[in-house]
Specification:
Blueprint lengths: L14 E2 L3 H10 L4 H8 L3 H8 L6 E2 H11 L26 H24 L8 E4 L3 E2 L4 E8 L7 E8 L5 E6 L3 E2 L3 E9 L3 E8 L9 E3 L1 E7 L6 E4 L1 E2 L2 E4 L15 H13 L7 H9 L2 E5 L3 E5 L1
Parallel strand pairs: 3-14, 4-15
Antiparallel strand pairs: 1-2, 3-5, 5-10, 6-9, 6-12, 7-10, 8-9, 11-15, 12-13, 16-17
Helix pairs in contact: 2-3, 2-4, 6-7
């Protein structure tokens, strides 16, 4: 459990400059929607749009890291690249001999040939076929959502089997589409098709789960292309949930659900309606001043 003291002054979080154009290019290249990225980061789609249009010169480093995780790239890929060295006055090179010029030309030609060969042989890494979203936090004994999105296109249809290994002691509450389940694993069999698929399910870790620990999910997708052999890939995205005195919709763990957090929570609850998520409690916390959680009473809204 993370203790907070309202009397303590808040220390401003470090900010970093982001490159909105690169962020948009990465997202579109990976065929990710603004809604998906917003849900993973824990902000609204309007915020993602402002970031991509360079409306904000800088954002919190924590949000930048979550954005990079959502796009599945290193943090440096979403930061603005700036030169910190002052420009120097151009200087004329000293005169060189004809032999030296020939040697320089030979070195440059070899370097260019090497670069050309490198770019011809280099293959960009493929994005994962299946990517998981889980909230950053959950409380012992409380229900929290998980979604796995499988990217499929009409030009490259496939069927698949997806297996998801559950955290130790976790209980499946419900799933859509229905999954075959055991105490330790969920499985889906999805026939051939060319449209994206979202697998949604809700889990509940044991009420006696030790707060302060992380619960982990791990999965794999077996892709079947008609006329070719199967291939197996690990499910991408995040798979770690910190268990403590938090609501899953409280993405930054500050003891309240603010305007940036309520819309992603609403979208998740709408997409996963009927799977056991308690929207009324989320809305009550957002309308109040925050919440407290304990093992006996669950969530208490602060008026």
């Amino acid at each position: 459990m993370v203790e907070t003291n309202d009397k303590n002054e808040k220390v401003p979080l470090p900010s970093v400059a982001i490159d909105g154009t690169r962020i948009r290019n990465i997202r579109e290249t990976k065929k990710l929607t603004q809604l998906y990225v917003a849900n993973v980061v824990g902000v609204t789609t309007d915020t993602i749009s402002r970031w991509e249009n360079n409306r904000y010169p800088s954002i919190k480093r924590d949000n930048a890291q979550k954005l990079a995780d959502a796009l599945e790239v290193p943090l440096e890929e979403v930061l603005r690249q700036e030169s910190s060295e002052p420009e120097e006055e151009p200087q004329l090179p000293p005169p060189v001999s004809k032999g030296a010029r020939i040697a320089v030309f030979a070195v440059v030609a070899a370097a260019l040939a090497g670069l050309l060969l490198f770019f011809l042989l280099r293959q960009p890494p493929l994005p994962p076929s299946a990517s998981r979203w889980v909230p950053r936090f959950a409380a012992p004994g409380e229900v929290f959502p998980v979604q796995i999105k499988v990217a499929r296109q009409a030009t490259a249809p496939f069927g698949f089997i997806l297996r998801e290994k559950l955290p130790a002691g976790a209980r499946l509450v419900n799933s859509l589409p229905p999954a075959s389940s055991t105490d330790t694993e969920l499985k889906w069999l999805v026939p051939n098709g060319g449209t994206p698929v979202t697998l949604s399910f809700t889990l509940q870790v044991p009420a006696g789960f030790n707060p302060g620990k992380d619960a982990a999910l791990k999965g794999e997708i077996v892709i079947h292309n008609i006329g070719s052999s199967n291939r197996t890939e690990a499910v991408g995205g995040n798979g770690s949930i910190h268990i403590g005195s938090y609501h899953w919709a409280d993405s930054n763990g500050d003891g309240r659900i603010d305007d940036d957090e309520i819309m992603p929570a609403y979208y998740i609850c709408e997409e996963m309606k009927g799977l056991g998520l308690d929207w009324k409690t989320i809305e009550a916390i957002w309308s109040g001043k925050g919440y407290r959680w304990d093992a006996k009473r669950g969530y208490t809204v602060m008026k």
